[in-house]
Amino acid sequence: MRKLAVLATLLLSFSAIAQEGPIISSAIIAIDRNQDLVEAKKFIDEAAEIISTKPGGEIGEKDMAKFYYYQGLINYRVFLSDNQELKSQDTNTLDKALKGFTNLIEFEQKVDRDRYSDEAKEQLQYVANDIAKRAIEAAQKKQFRTSYNDFIKTYEIKKSPVVGITDTAMLYNAAIMAQNAKMYDKALAHNQTLKELGYKGVTYTAKNAQSGEETVFPNARMMENMVKSGKFVEPKAEGDVRPDIYVAIANLALAQGDTSLYERTVEEGRTKFPENKNLIESELSIFFAKKQYDKALSVLDLAIDKSEGDRKVVMYYNKGVILQNEMDRTAEALKAYDEALKLDSTYSDALYMSSIIYIDSANAISDEMNALPLSASGKYEKLKAQQKKVFEVALPYLERAYATSPDDQQVVTALRQVYRQLRMFDKARELPTFE
User: Fold this and answer.
1) Do residues 267 and 250 lie in contact, with contact meaning Cβ atoms separated by under 8 Å?
2) Which residue from 53, 123, 322, 375 has the least number of CB within 10 angstroms?
3) Torsion angle of the four alpha carbons 153, 154, 155, 158, in this order, in degrees rounded to the nearest 10
4) Measured between alpha carbons, how far is 352 from 93 in angstroms, rounded to an integer?
């Protein structure tokens, strides 16, 4: 009896292993003839489980091709289905569809027989677009690594010999997500590829109606559909992102300490896109670092011309600092600070640095006074009155700076000094002290 039992078990096991053909056929009948997605999904999953236990050589070529194609087709239809209960039972149907169609095409290329490849190639493009949609949804949730994986997956699907499309928009989106996910090596590599490909592209963006955040879409049709759905507003199509790619490469190179790549990229970018303000500012950073202040000043004037709002204020301020601290051209520095203050009268740094020019001038008069002999009392008094006038000019700058930045220790220290020089001791005592 024991031997018979063992034999029966072996027979049962063999019987179970040998059933993939009929089960695949049942899945095909369910989906093609009966339009029964639930049954089709059940049968194709059962076939997948059986096939996973057997060496590929034991499965007939025809059955294998059918299995791969219908694994892709059935799972994709489940993904597209409105049957939420069925979809909830397997959340990986889109990836299984991708796997099925991809395996089918590779298999039929290997055996040199095209039964389903044309249909699979067509379906594969739809699958790729849905993976791109999933990438956008992940980006909206700030799941940047997940979004990156789907964008790069879409790019690779389309780039493969099977589809033969180089969808650089997907690579561009992947590069953005990689940078957001702090995957800087990948972001740098992808941006360099985009630069080499000369990707110009149009960036399709719209704002999330609820959060107000801007989202990048892979193409115009998807953006338009999302706007029609009411989930997004303010659609925009902006062209030529090449300068942004140069800026991204430069910034990523600098973050990794590769100053040589940074400088080469900025130089090349400035040559190709001389009006781009971000590349202008990047070039400024190079001149600042190398203390090439004459070059920095010429580029600063261009940066000022291209800037608006707060950036313009900062550029005027930077020009003043270089003229004041590095080139001792204080009259020109005051003009630069004055331009900054015309745009923002409360800009504390410009107010403070303007006051320092006058304080330094007043202190220079002190040196001249101290060098006089005791007999030159008349000239001493004349210089003293002159010095007082200079401190009086410095005072309003510091009082305005203090009103804006009362916790700035440098401002308070300078203001206290000027109050004392002007014998405004009560005012000086009212100022806060810092430990």
Assistant:
1) no
2) 375
3) 120
4) 63
